[in-house]
Amino acid sequence: VLASRDRLLELDLTAAPTQIRVGGRDASLYAFNGSLPGPTLRVAPGDTIRVRMRNQLQDPTNLHVHGLHVSPEGNSDNPFVSIAPGESFDYAFDLPADHPAGTYWYHPHHHGNAADQVAAGLYGAIIVEDPEPIPVARERVMVVSDLTLDTSGNLPGATSMQQMMGREGDMVLVNGQLRPQITASPGERERWRIVNACPSRYLRLQMEGQQFRVFSRDLGRLPVPEETTEVVIAPGNRVELLIETTEGSSALITTPVNRGGMMGGMSGNRSDNGSGNDGAIELLTLEVSGDPAPTQEAVPGGPALRDLRGEPVAGRHTLDFAMGMGGAMGGGGTTMGGGGSAQNDSMAFTINDRKFDAERVDTSVRAGKVEEWTLVNSSPMDHPVHLHVWPMQIVQDGDRDLTEPRWQDVVNVPARSRVKVLIAFDDFPGKTVYHCHILDHEDQGMMGTVNAR
Ligand code: C2O
Ligand code: CU
Ligand code: CU
């Protein structure tokens, strides 16, 4: 058992405009500490992390530790903090001693700037170490992002169409690299910690020629790794894969996910990219050759997952994610700027008919209790719904009841469908947010506040 406050980790993170080579071109991006992605934070349950975050951008920013179960207030993971250009802010995150291991990430979360800042390169991985070693030959952290560069290497601003659909970049990068090549020997087991840091792109990951098992989704680990041929992760989701290597060359690809659209025929996917077959995009190549590695021990089963079904439910809420034409849905039905200066006054992104207001409390919950939330999507487009601090157990997806406990912190709610989740509001009172993790939607108002007390 780890004692609380085992270690103190200190880190300076500077968000600044940075010149970086991307896909053989000079790009003007934003980066943490000059690198794409930013530094990987490795921590253990019980640790305290102190981060001095400096803002050298032209716009306000802040820092969010996505998926970590830490206090939502004060100098911790507070989505309402605003760090002005030129200023800095001292964060302190105390991880509980029983914090789930897994792959998490960090990114800015300043309302109105999140999509632009993440798209420009501000993201990094957080690893919460396992209590016991997992027998693998090596592990790799893979932060997947996408971006578009114009001919001078700058990021073009998102068009209103891209803001409506959620922007997808032309280049899909792994750790800032375009189609990197990695190598292994036959018979090795690798653990891949994959973060979907794209502002809007869903990834359907596939790899032929290699055995591929899901080890973790978002947090913790599965009791038994699941063998599969593909895995879909929405923006914000993470997945850990176990790969048992076989001689040969294999590509990790992503193929399009139909996430709906506004007008018939328009989809959120691009197919003008990569190899061109069915819109498949190659993320990386794995070359397996050489002498076979000695056989590795089997991966031990994970602990049984908590199952909130059977625990008393103290409250029920319905959140309705909607997109409306006309821009009249924000703030009680007033129309927005008659002069047409705002780019997006043709579209409103709302939850229960309201746009985000940091001052309002949208959902009150009792700290320490379990609640059932029904996430309704009445729009023609999928929305990946994310709640800070407290993970969600998915119990019903459309009409399908889940039989095994399944935990995630980003839950995709398909167009014109609904997902029921159970949430245990353990440990921390305080106010934080839930939102669509298509960051363009979040910035346009598809975010609400929750207060646990
Ligand atoms: Cu990764 Cu509130 O977001
Ligand atoms: Cu988050
Ligand atoms: Cu959305």
Automatic annotation (TrEMBL):
Entry-linked Pfam families: Cu-oxidase, Cu-oxidase_2, Cu-oxidase_3
Keywords (A to Z) from UniProt: Metal-binding, Oxidoreductase
Residue ranges annotated for the Plastocyanin-like domain, each copy included: 21-132, 162-247, 348-451
PROSITE patterns: MULTICOPPER_OXIDASE2 (PS00080), TAT (PS51318)
GO MF term list: copper ion binding; oxidoreductase activity
Stored Gene3D superfamilies: Cupredoxins - blue copper proteins
InterPro entries, A to Z: Cu-oxidase-like_N, Cu-oxidase_2nd, Cu-oxidase_C, Cu-oxidase_fam, Cu_oxidase_Cu_BS, Cupredoxin, TAT_signal
PANTHER family for this protein: MULTI-COPPER OXIDASE, MULTICOPPER OXIDASE LPR1
Identification of the protein by name: Multicopper oxidase family protein
Organism: Arthrobacter cheniae
